[in-house]
Design brief:
It is a single chain. This protein has 111 residues and is an alpha+beta fold. The protein has one domain: PH-domain like (Roll), CATH 2.30.29. The protein has two helices and seven strands, in the order βββαβββαβ. A seven-stranded mixed beta sheet has the order 4-5-6-3-2-1-7. The protein starts with a strand and ends with a strand.
Length: 111
Amino acid sequence: MAGKFVMSKGKDGKDYFVLKAGNGEVILQSQGYSSGSGCENGIESVKNNAGDQSRFECREAKDGRFYFVLKAKNEQEIGRSQMYQSESGCQNGMASVASNATTAIIVDERS
């Protein structure tokens, strides 16, 4: 089963997207966008940057868990992962985004 980007409207009125793996698990989530077109551009940026491992950055949180961010060429953060118990889990998450993003369908649930 292929991955999918799901666009939604937050309680704050902003547009968000998540990238879900084929098993339905959220593997990347976006910041809030003030417009639908901004959200759509964010999805395109994920698709364009996820294939480049240098765009990913694995970080350690204060509590010792790990997460990653995906950055665009301009170094701006495009998306952020969930928390992982290990650095290897974080690496697996980055690989999952890389393999799912380019072929993921887009589902718009904003209405």
